[in-house]
Design goal:
Helix content: 25-40%
CATH architecture of the domain at 186-404: 2-Layer Sandwich
Largest sheet: 8 strands, antiparallel
Strand content: 15-25%
Number of strands: 20
CATH class of the domain at 186-404: Alpha Beta
């Protein structure tokens, strides 16, 4: 395989050194030949950090398992193999008036990856996370057995696999309940706000009145303009497109520059242009679904703009009661460090509980920041952002992460041992090795010392 064939999307960690095809891995698992920590499913490489990497073993390329197995136009339940892309599910269901109830920021994720990460979208306040709409799935484990998992059958495996980041086995196929929509198009409205206090005053009403709500923040703006941005809301249009467009990027970054082009002057100009272009729109306009949900899919390989060292994404969630203090502190820390975020997104999670044990999305506000990897200075900032987040009683998103320490992971997910108890011993990721395994080894060392 090529040197970067199985790299994470952030490109700040080394690519996988060994890969198996889905057929090879299935044969290995069914034959009982998978050793400890030897495999990890890999979808379409859209995870930003190292939750999709397994330096001590092999990753399993799942993209060959990409068939749609069935679709019930009456109930909106679609069944597909785990390597099926979300774009293909949309294309199959759209003519019948259905759309995934939850979509992340790209349609180029696999069904298995969306389940394993329990992804969230712009409508968590209405629909919860992706796992809330999973009907069932078929899971293959290293004991050679295939498990049919749904809430009333194999409930422990069902809950551990949703958000379990591929550590409980290989999802072979899944059934997903889609939601009926009058059209794919979205009636979009954009409201500028002068600062975070105004945003927080608007956010609850925006969620109440709209299917989708998300805010863009001008992260570099300081002083009286600190926290200014745009609140973007939307609802599916009553009349509009009923057929999906071909998922094809209009632009491309053909090569990776040796250094990031996303420097402060560029980001300042970009933020000003984006704020003017989007903020100058008045009233409600009808937008195509790809531009509304997946704007960056229009630029192929856009992550190359960060240069050879890649990028770190930091996504946090803090409780409602802490948000008005913690979110400004996170933005202020990034400005003080002189680090610019290309895209800064803020949105509100609702109270709907995920069926997954290790789901990131929970009630509160979530802030996403993207930083070019500038080495020690960026890592120091990320550690400071971790401390602000956990100090506010919040959590750091593991499937967007490539460097958080074991203590931050434990503070974010105090129930991580429930996943470890169900984790298939043949499955391991670099994320789990540097967080949960470190915690387990530390506990074992303390136990031995006490004897």
């Amino acid at each position: 395989m090529s040197g970067d064939a199985y790299q994470s999307f952030g490109r700040a960690t080394p690519p996988a050194r060994r890969a198996l095809s889905a057929a090879q891995a299935i044969a290995l698992l069914k034959g009982g030949g998978a050793g400890e920590g030897s495999v990890l499913p890999y979808g379409n490489g859209r995870s930003y950090g190292d939750s999709c990497q397994n330096d001590g073993g092999s990753i399993v390329d799942m993209r060959s398992l990409n068939r749609i197995l069935g679709f019930d136009a009456e109930t909106g339940v679609i069944e597909a193999e785990a390597g099926t892309l979300l774009s293909d599910i949309i294309a199959r269901a759209a003519p019948h008036g259905y759309f995934p109830a939850v979509v992340p920021g790209t349609q180029f994720v696999t069904l298995g990856g969306a389940i394993a990460n329990d992804v969230h979208g712009k409508n968590h306040h209405r629909r919860g996370s992706f796992g809330c709409h999973v009907v069932s799935f078929t899971l293959l484990r290293s004991d050679g057995r295939t498990y049919e998992c749904r809430a009333p059958a194999n409930p422990r495996l069902f809950a551990a696999t949703i958000g379990g980041m591929g550590l409980t086995g290989i999802i072979l196929s899944a059934k997903l309940r889609l939601m009926p929509v009058p059209s794919l198009d979205v009636m979009e409205e954009i409201k500028p706000f002068s600062g975070l206090a105004e945003y927080f005053d608007l956010a609850e009403a925006a969620d109440r009145d709209n299917e989708y709500a998300v805010a863009w923040i001008d992260q570099l703006a300081g002083g009286a303009d600190a926290g200014r941005g745009l609140l973007i809301t939307g609802n599916h249009a009553r009349y509009g497109a009923r057929a999906a467009k071909t998922a094809r990027a209009k632009l491309s970054v053909p090569f990776q520059p040796p250094f990031t082009v996303l420097n402060r002057p560029f980001l300042t100009a970009f933020n000003a242009a984006y704020r003017w272009r989007k903020g100058s729109a008045r009233g409600v306009r009808q937008a195509g679904y790809q531009g509304f949900f997946f704007p960056l899919d229009g630029v192929s390989n856009w992550n190359r703009l960060y240069g050879q060292r890649g990028l770190f994404q930091h996504q946090s969630v803090v409780p409602d009661e802490a948000a008005r203090t913690a979110v400004p502190a996170l933005l202020a820390a990034a400005r003080a460090a002189g680090q610019g975020s290309f895209l800064t997104v803020l949105k509100r999670f609702g109270a709907t509980r995920s069926p997954g044990l290790l789901s990131f999305a929970r009630p509160g506000y979530t802030l996403t920041l993207d930083f070019p990897n500038r080495g020690a200075a960026t890592l120091a900032l990320l550690n400071e952002l971790d401390a602000i987040t956990t100090g506010a009683g919040g959590a750091v998103n593991p499937y967007k992460d490539a460097r958080m320490g074991a203590e931050v992971f434990a503070a974010s997910f105090p129930n991580w041992r429930e996943i470890e108890a169900v984790r298939d011993p043949a499955f391991m990721s670099d994320l789990w090795a540097r967080t949960a395994r470190v915690l387990l080894d530390r506990g074992e060392a303390l136990a031995h010392a006490a004897e």
